[in-house]
Amino acid sequence: MPVGDDSGELFPESASAPAAPRARGGAPLADRMRPRTLDEVVGQRHLVAPGAPLRVLIETGALPSLLLWGPPGTGKTSLARLLASTGPRDAARFVALSAVAAGLKDVREVVADAERARRGGQRTVFFLDEIHRFNRAQQDALLPHVEAGTLTLVGATTENPSFEVIGPLLSRCRVFTLKPLEREDLLELLRRALADRERGLGGAGVAVAEDALGALAEAASGDARRALGMLETAVAYHRASPARDAPLGPEDVRAAVGRRVLLHDRDREEHYNVVSALIKSLRASDPDAALYYLARLLDAGDDPLFVARRLVIFASEDVGNAEPQALPLAVAAFEAVDRIGMPEGRIPLAQATTFLATAPKSNASYVALGRASSAVEKHGALPVPMHLRNAPTPFMKAEGYGAGYAYPHDAPDAFVATRNLPDGVADAPFYEPTERGAEQAIAERLAAWRARRKGA
Length: 456
Fold this sequence. Notes:
The protein is mainly α. Helix content is 49%, strand content 6%.
């Protein structure tokens, strides 16, 4: 059903009606729709819901210097503005700088103004966006003024502050982690923008279909700014199109945003279908198909670390000892993605995917564990053979613990043909290596050892 305004009508103005006027000199929709109160904040419930830590600090006036860490478009700037204007005390001065463009001179000016304001009884909230872009000397210059309470620092960063913010400054700030917005959060934000006649698109004369909103929410990948920007572009595009009298649909969204919006839910059926296709293509040794499904997941905004975890599991479950380098390489890919982020993280993911797809395959270790678990379930906790037991005390040695244990490294070929399974467990092997890849040599060694152990 198309989305309308809060009067219940589907934007009754004609399609040729002028768009709602932009506030603040033509500010983009994302800026116009910034929350004015904590109750208008969408998402971040773990921080701003009633009783949540950040909300309590704001409402009690006990606001410390802090760092807001999270992906783009999660509300760091909006929250920083609310910090200055919400609470029991008089509204604070709010000063904002971007560390990309600011330098030491700018910081000194902010500090001087904050000192004058403090003498007049007014506090200053200094919002420093992209604080990780400040070098050590610039961050050091802030430290004494944060310590003295001259200003309350609110830093925003998309990078892990434990790596990018100097230790002394980090220790004087509380860190609050913001999360990507959920799909339902983005849908709420989009509907709010469409219904708002004062700041949003409530007077644009465009009805938007629910599946178009869903496509926008998925394409935004948890980024509110991106979602609102794409909505604004799509509405403007639709109003100028021949089909402007019809509701704006997913195809209009795709055409307007300049790229294909993948209909892919990160936690629903299509997500699991594509993940399943990736794993089964890897198992089928089809690197081309595996790369296609990898691209589907990444382009639809799936969590790259989720994909990397699946590759680590596959390396052990499906490649195993047929290619012992598979697991270290998959783990290295996971760590690379975690450290460098996106979009560059696509590169190690592609390398790991092609390596795993073209590697010899064996699930023998995985199957062997299942067989061993079945034996444990069938026989229970059988007594460990005496020669394998730990004997840390003279009494335990006297009881026969460790008796008869032969140290394999003392044998000529580092092998001792003793039986190590408990009595009662059948001699049928759990691990049956294949003859593929490096596991072929393992199979040959293991066959020889089992023959010697059986003969003994």
